[in-house]
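Sharing a chain and its predicted structure for anyone who wants a worked example. Both blocks are below, sequence first, tokens second.
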Amino acid sequence: MGKKKALFMVCLLAVAFGLTALVALFAEKKEESEGILCVTSFYPVQLLAESVAEGADGVTVRNLTENHSGCIHDYTLTTQDMRLLSEAELFLINGGDMELFLEKAASEYTDLTIVDTSEGFVFLEGVGHAHEHDGEEEEGHSEECTNPTHHHEEVSDAHEGHSHVLNAHLWMEIDGYLLQLQRVEEAFVKADPAQAELYRNNARICREELAALKEMYAAAKKVLAGRETVVFHEGFVYLFNMLGVETVHCLAMDADTQIAAGEAAEIIEECRLHGITVLFAEEEYVETVTDTFAGELGGMVVSLDPVTGTESSGNTTAGDEASEHPQAGEKIGVAQYCARMRRNLEKILEVYGVQ
């Protein structure tokens, strides 16, 4: 009887041990299956994250502002956004004072790893958005800097309306995007060292693509350098800097922009002074800029793509492949960024009559 009892106790302990091991195994599997949720703040950062994490086991990339097609200076977090951040392990941001909503997110989720992908970048000076109400320019929305090519490293403490000290659109400079790529790679390797080799290999492929794009811009600079232009998007200042083209005036436009008569007269005067007849704007604002300036200058307005969202139908040229037209929600990555930046370059060369 004693032997049977002892045998029973041994079996019971074995079963208990087995169950404990099984529960631990399931818990481990559950933890593995949950993986890493990486949230990006903005479309250009999303492209980098998707490319670097491509093929990684258990990694999900979600873009916080996926339904926002433009820049996110004035984006307001929704309840759904806050819920998404509460589930995330990694939050990759553009930086450069782009995410004015970040303070709320950081205070709510102290355990969330937030990575500024622009860390170490030397920004250009930012400009304000000109808003006009009842014929008078709204206070706090006037242009802050007459020289958008001025470099500035400090972020302002005051954020009134659309006024920003920094031009945060560093992704429109290929070296800036390469820096962001490095930051994204580092973030994934640190968060998930088990798949570090995969992340590094993906980042290497991205660097090769961006290096080829950079060579194209460097070649174009040899024939475009010394020209001058006026642009209506801050990101285009970085783009033209790569080409050696000086931006003599930048007016940052958004959906609320009404160009004040005084600023319009100033821009026209500058264009005449510098012999500028070609202006560059985002597709959405080409008609407004054309109506305001083209007739006065006898020139033209050309649309360029700021690569801020998936909707780029207005920024295409004849001969574009259908595969280069992204659909909403489609993962497209750095290759798509390169395709859109190539089209920008092709347009610029064409309008200046350079082959």
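Comments welcome. The chain has two domains: 1-29, 36-351.
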